[in-house]
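Q: Given only this backbone (402 positions), what sequence would you predict?
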């Protein structure tokens, strides 16, 4: 809690800087705020067509998307159940926390799971993947599962390099990538990088409240679907693509409000342009990283992602060393009205996360960093310099570059 003589400055709009659900644009929320329409004809059918037409480009693919009602975990299960059979072996590449949870789901659903875990704070080494797949001379491994960005560690995997490792091993395994934290924020090219299944969800870079998953299925995945025996009626791709009423795409009543919101979000992404959007995320992430470098001290704040080139442009995980991360988060929330993301995967109170994904701009990022710096000062935490000054300089430099 703040000192008793400290003025409370949290009145006004709450600033939520967690890595999803992210800040929702007013345009999206306004689009969702509507009475329920006729679900069989009229505006809703046009909205659905526009959403499904726009989704392939977001993932850099010509493959269609399937959109189940659910969160990212729903996307994981849809991908597994439509392409694999009970008892098959999958190779999970974990660089934080979320690929491992996907692997837990696979095992629960009757698959055998082998996991390669990267050293803490580092991305998967493609050479290790190549070595393991080359040793699988019987091609027992049916699929390779990983994340583009791990939301817990903020580590970004090199997806093209992992694809090259699979190819170098001459292995036919399907390649499935979770882009839940990165879609719409970081460059991802499903077709160019030869990814067979891509998974995302609505609540992060796609700027729509939680409730929709997206699964893009490439030709290899659709071929595997024909013999998969984990298929169930709700998730089944065949049922969702049969000729008939459009609502088969959702296996029943469509998520009306979410579809109107997602259409507006996709329009906003198109208006900005994907290249410009990627560049904005790089520049804002650079500002956050400049702040962390300025704050960093021996035994104090530092990056969870150890290698600069492997740090996400959508989320930054910060280890706190001797500083109590929970006390810092409480001070930011109670004193300044800023909610930080809790650390995931390490000891409690040893890290926090800043989400800078989707509908964010420079003033929002600088405000969050300012609250953190003020809270650090309140706590008497050791810092090497002003992170806000460093972030401001990074943003100014980016403005001169652009």
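A: Predicted residues:
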């Amino acid at each position: 809690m703040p000192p008793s003589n400290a003025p409370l400055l949290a009145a006004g709009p709450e600033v939520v800087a967690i890595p999803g659900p992210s800040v929702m644009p007013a345009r999206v929320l306004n689009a969702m705020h509507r009475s329920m329409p006729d679900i069989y004809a009229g505006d809703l059918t046009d909205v659905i067509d526009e959403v499904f037409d726009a989704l392939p480009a977001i993932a850099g693919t010509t493959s269609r998307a399937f959109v189940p009602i659910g969160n990212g975990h729903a996307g994981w299960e849809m991908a597994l159940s439509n392409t694999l059979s009970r008892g098959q072996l999958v190779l999970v590449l974990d660089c934080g926390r979320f690929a491992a949870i996907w692997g837990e789901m696979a095992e629960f659903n009757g698959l055998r799971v082998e996991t390669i875990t990267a050293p803490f704070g580092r991305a998967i080494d493609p050479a290790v993947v190549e070595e393991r797949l080359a040793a699988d001379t019987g091609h027992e491994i049916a699929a390779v599962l990983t994340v583009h960005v791990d939301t817990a560690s903020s580590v970004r995997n090199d997806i093209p390099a992992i694809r090259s490792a699979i190819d170098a091993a001459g292995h036919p395994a399907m390649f499935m990538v979770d882009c839940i934290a990165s879609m719409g924020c970081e460059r991802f090219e499903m077709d160019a990088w030869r990814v067979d299944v891509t998974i995302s969800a609505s609540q992060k870079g796609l700027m729509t409240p939680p409730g929709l998953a997206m699964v893009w299925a490439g030709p290899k995945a659709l071929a595997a679907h024909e013999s998969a025996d984990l298929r169930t009626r709700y998730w089944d791709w065949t049922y969702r693509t049969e000729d008939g009423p459009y609502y088969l795409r959702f296996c029943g009543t469509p998520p009306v409000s979410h579809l109107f919101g997602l259409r507006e979000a996709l329009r906003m992404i198109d208006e900005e342009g994907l290249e410009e959007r990627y560049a904005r995320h790089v520049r804002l992430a650079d500002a956050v990283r400049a702040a962390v470098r300025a704050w960093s001290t021996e035994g104090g704040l530092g990056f969870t992602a150890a290698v600069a080139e492997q740090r996400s442009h959508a989320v930054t995980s910060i280890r706190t060393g001797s500083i109590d991360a929970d006390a810092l988060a409480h001070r930011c929330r109670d004193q300044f009205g800023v909610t930080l993301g809790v650390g995931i995967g390490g000891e409690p109170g040893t890290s926090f996360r800043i989400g800078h994904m989707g509908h964010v701009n420079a003033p929002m990022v600088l405000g969050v960093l300012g609250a953190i710096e003020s809270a650090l000062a309140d706590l008497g935490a050791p810092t090497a310099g002003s992170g806000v000054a460093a972030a401001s300089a990074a943003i100014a430099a980016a403005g001169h570059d652009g």
